[in-house]
Amino acid sequence: MALTIYGVTVLVFMMGMYALERRDDRYIAAFALGCALSSSYGFLSGAWPFGVVEAVWCAIAARRYVLTRRRPRSASD
Length: 77
Fold this sequence. Notes:
Elements: H1 2-20, H2 25-45, H3 48-70
Helix pairs in contact: 1-2, 2-3
């Protein structure tokens, strides 16, 4: 039961951060963290394909965060 609660919690967190990504770069980093946590849930629950896919999404989101941090900010940001 605890693993199920963990899984639901991290998936809700991940999706919430995904929905907020356009508001600030830090939400992209939080989304990457959510992907890493949901990847751990996948591996812990025995659903390793889910864990692998979420690990890939974590890497993609982390790269997006790094690239957005390097981008110069405009006056409208």
